[in-house]
Specification:
288 residues, alpha/beta, 10 helices, 22% strand, globular
């Protein structure tokens, strides 16, 4: 089947996007990026294309990334077995050094380079730079896992003002110079809230929040914070989705207007969410 578009059809598609381009022009969108969308090279390229495209039409995009699978691989290559406690990585001093190498080094700079190869202007920073993320120890048994105490977004705002795409790795530090590994979803939520982002997009490996987890057609497209808080009680949200929903609520309570959970494995999911009426995934919003 021939799926190519004529020039007229391409022009029609672009004009349909115009109201959304106008709506988001000059607004800040935070994208939390990780999981399968980061592992697949082809998907990674498409995500970078989406971000560059949004930037070129006037959207200010902040990319916050994790890197759990690559952390696991790096640890195993160094003869160190990853250990988790209730979904959080137990982080001793050696693991923290590996986190800095992998998150602030390899992954961060790879994403910066990809964005620039796609025509964007990107600058990589970690939460330790400019004391962007200040933290304290979350739990002694977890080691160097941080609880965020303060977010100083001025470094991000400075980069946005200069036309850069900030690419943020989720590390933090305290006043004594100790470095901490910070949960990526939590860091993205707090950063998005602190800069008053118009949208926060959480890229996951499912299509959004499902009414029936076994039925992909039962996607819940819109939820208020009050409705989202009741999902766990009703058993609709469970397992790894619980902390993601809590991060959505946290982001909105800290100042984000709307948060979207979407499937990062879907090609151009970010563009569908921002530049179409139907959107993609599940939107969580505050009281309107």
């Amino acid at each position: 089947m021939n799926t190519s578009l004529s020039n007229a059809e391409r022009a029609e598609v672009l004009t349909h996007a115009l109201p959304y381009i106008q709506k988001y022009n000059g607004k800040i969108v935070v994208v939390k990026y990780g999981g399968n969308a980061m592992i697949s090279e082809s998907l990674k390229e498409q995500v970078m294309e989406d971000i560059v495209l949004l930037t070129l039409v006037g959207v200010k995009v902040v990319l916050v990334h994790g890197g759990g699978p690559e952390m696991n691989d790096a640890m195993k290559k160094m003869g160190k077995e990853p250990v988790f406690d209730n979904g959080l990585r137990v982080t001793d001093h050696e693991t923290m050094e590996i986190a800095q190498m992998v998150l602030a080094g390899k992954i961060n700079k790879t994403l910066v380079n990809l964005l620039q190869m796609k025509g964007g202007r990107a600058m990589g920073i970690s939460g330790m730079d400019g004391r962007l993320i200040e933290a304290t120890q979350k739990n002694e048994k977890l080691g160097y896992v941080g609880e965020i105490t303060h977010v100083n977004v001025q470094p991000i705002l400075d980069l946005l003002d200069k036309g850069y795409i900030p690419v943020v790795s989720t590390l933090g530090c305290d006043r004594d110079g100790n470095a901490y590994n910070i949960n990526g979803d939590t860091a993205a939520a707090r950063i998005a809230g602190a800069i008053g982002a118009e949208r926060m997009i959480m890229m996951t490996d499912i299509s959004g929040i499902l009414e029936d987890k076994d039925n992909p057609n039962s996607l819940i497209r819109r939820l208020s914070v009050a409705e989202a808080e009741k999902l766990e009680e009703r058993g609709i949200v469970s397992g790894g989705m619980i902390p993601k929903v809590k991060c959505c609520i946290d982001a909105i309570q800290h100042g984000v207007r709307k948060v979207i959970i979407l499937d990062g494995r879907v090609h151009h999911a970010i563009i569908m969410e921002i530049l179409t009426n139907e959107g993609a995934g599940t939107m969580v919003y505050g009281e309107e």
